[in-house]
UniProtKB/TrEMBL annotation:
Keyword field: Cell inner membrane, Cell membrane, Membrane, Signal, Transport
PANTHER family registered for this protein in UniProt: ALIPHATIC SULFONATES-BINDING PROTEIN-RELATED (PTHR30024), NITRATE_NITRITE BINDING PROTEIN NRTA (PTHR30024:SF7)
Source organism superkingdom: Bacteria
A GO term from the CC aspect: endomembrane system
Source taxonomy: Bacteria, Pseudomonadati, Pseudomonadota, Betaproteobacteria, Neisseriales
UniProt protein name: Nitrate/nitrite transport system substrate-binding protein
CDD domains: PBP2_NrtA_CpmA_like
Entry-linked InterPro entries: NrtA/CpmA_ABC-bd_dom
Subcellular location: Endomembrane system
Natural source organism: Andreprevotia lacus DSM 23236
Length: 393
C-alpha cells in the first residue's frame, strides 16, 4: 500500500538529529500503531527511517531501552514508571512521549472458575475452597496488567499479595500455561484472551475497560536523555505515531491491520482471532466491554499527568514504593506534555485543555489526580512499603 502522507514535512531546523530509529514492540494487538507507521512509511514524512524490533517480553523491552539497543518502544505505562523508580531493577530517567491506546486488555479465568461465576459463586469463595494456592499471571511487576489484576482482585475482596500467587509470564505464553493447568487466571493484552476462548482453555471474566473505563494502557516510551539530546527526533517520532493512531480510527483500516498483525513477524495468529476484539466485538464475553481506542480525534494520545500519577498511588498501595514518591513532580518530569502538544499542533490535532482527567473505577472510587496521598490511603486492602521489602530505590 502506498503511504497516505507521501510528502516530506520538514525543514533544516526541524530535521531529526537521529534519522534512523529502532522501535521495540511486543506481539500484541495494541502494537498496531508502530506496525502501521512502519508498513505505511509514515516516518518518511518526518525525516525518519523506522526499524521495528520484536521483543519476547516486557523485561526485554526494558533492558534494551536502558542499554540503548532500542531508541524507543511500545511500553506498558507502568513499566516506564517502575524503571523511573528503580522498582525491582535498574533505575533510569524515562520519558512518555504519548499514549498509544486505551482499553483492550482483559482477565481470563480457567473454565472451572468461569463456570462457578456463571453459577453465582463468587471468585473469593471458589478460591478459598481450592486445595492449592491460586496462581495468577501478569506480564511485568509494575506494569498495567499487574495493576489491573491487583485492582480487580481487591475489588472482589481478595488480597492479591496474600490470597493468590502472582507470577510473570510473557503474553504469548499465557494461554499455553493455562492449558497446562499452571494458572487459575491471567491478565494480558489481546489477542491472547481471544486465543484462550477459541481453544476452550478459559473465559474472559472482565475487560480492563470495565475495571477503569478508558484507562491508559501502552505508551511510546524512551529514555529521557533521548529527548534532551535529540528533541527533533522525539517530536518527529511522536508525530509519526500520532498519524498512525489517526489512521487506525477507521474500521476498514483496523481490519487491514488485523491481517498484517497475523503475520509471523508480528503476532503470528489468525486474523479472525485479532480482528473482532480490535473492532470492539467481544461476543458473549461482555456487554460492557469498552472498545480498544487508538486516537478518537486525539483524545486518547495526550500523556495526562493524572494517568501517570495513578500508577504511583498503586505502587504505594501495594507496598512497592514509599509514600514519598507522591510528594514530587515525577509525572511532570516523565510525561512530555509540552513536546506532545508541539507534535499534535503541527498535525492540527486538538489537545486537552488540562493535563489531568477524572474517572470512576470498578469499585466506585473516583480518581482525578487531585490528592495522591488521600487516594492511596483510601483502599481497605493495601500493604506497607517497609513490610513488603521491595520499595523504590
Amino acid at each position: 500500500m502506498s503511504p497516505p502522507y507521501p510528502h516530506a514535512n520538514i525543514n533544516g531546523s526541524d530535521a531529526p538529529e537521529k534519522p534512523n530509529v529502532r522501535l521495540g514492540f511486543v506481539p500484541l494487538t495494541d502494537c498496531a500503531p508502530l506496525v502501521a507507521a512502519k508498513i505505511l512509511g509514515l516516518g518518511r514524512r518526518h525525516g525518519l527511517n523506522i526499524e521495528l524490533v520484536r521483543q519476547p517480553s516486557w523485561a526485554a523491552v526494558r533492558d534494551k531501552l536502558l542499554s540503548g539497543e532500542l531508541d524507543a518502544a511500545q511500553a506498558l505505562y507502568g513499566l516506564v514508571y517502575g524503571v523511573q523508580l528503580g522498582i525491582g531493577g535498574p533505575q533510569a530517567d524515562m520519558a512518555v512521549l504519548m499514549t498509544l491506546n486505551r482499553n483492550g486488555q482483559a482477565i481470563t479465568l480457567s473454565n472451572r472458575l468461569s463456570e462457578g461465576l456463571r453459577q453465582g459463586r463468587s471468585l473469593r469463595t471458589q478460591l478459598a475452597a481450592q486445595t492449592h494456592q491460586p496462581v495468577f499471571a501478569q506480564t511485568f511487576p509494575t506494569g498495567t496488567h499487574a495493576m489491573w489484576l491487583y485492582y480487580w482482585l481487591a475489588a472482589e475482596g481478595l488480597d492479591p499479595l496474600r490470597d493468590v500467587r502472582s507470577v510473570v509470564i510473557p503474553p504469548p505464553q499465557m494461554s499455553d500455561a493455562m492449558a497446562l493447568e499452571q494458572l487459575d487466571g491471567f491478565c494480558a493484552g489481546e489477542p491472547w484472551h481471544a486465543v484462550a476462548e477459541a481453544e476452550n482453555i478459559g473465559r474472559t471474566a472482565v475487560t480492563s475497560g470495565e475495571i477503569w473505563p478508558d484507562h491508559p494502557e501502552k505508551v511510546l516510551a524512551c529514555r529521557r536523555d533521548l529527548v534532551a539530546l535529540y528533541p527533533n527526533t522525539a517530536r518527529a517520532l511522536t508525530m509519526t505515531i500520532l498519524e498512525a493512531c489517526r489512521w487506525l480510527d477507521a474500521p476498514e483500516h483496523r481490519r487491514e491491520m488485523a491481517g498484517w498483525l497475523s503475520g509471523p513477524g508480528y503476532i503470528g495468529r489468525a486474523s479472525n482471532l485479532i480482528a473482532p476484539r480490535m473492532l470492539g466485538d467481544y461476543g458473549r464475553t461482555s456487554a460492557h466491554a469498552l472498545p480498544l481506542r487508538f486516537f478518537a480525534d486525539g483524545e486518547v494520545n495526550h500523556p495526562y499527568l493524572s494517568d501517570g500519577n495513578w500508577f504511583l498511588t498503586q505502587y504505594v498501595r501495594w507496598g512497592m514504593a514509599a509514600s514519598s514518591v507522591l510528594d514530587g513532580h515525577l509525572a511532570a518530569e516523565i510525561n512530555q506534555t509540552a513536546l506532545y502538544r508541539q507534535a499534535a499542533a503541527a498535525l492540527d490535532i486538538a489537545t486537552a485543555d488540562s493535563d489531568t482527567r477524572s474517572s470512576v473505577l470498578i469499585d466506585g472510587r473516583r480518581w482525578d489526580g487531585s490528592n495522591l496521598h488521600a487516594y492511596a490511603r483510601s483502599f481497605p486492602i493495601q500493604h506497607d512499603a517497609h513490610a513488603a521489602g521491595h520499595k523504590a530505590k
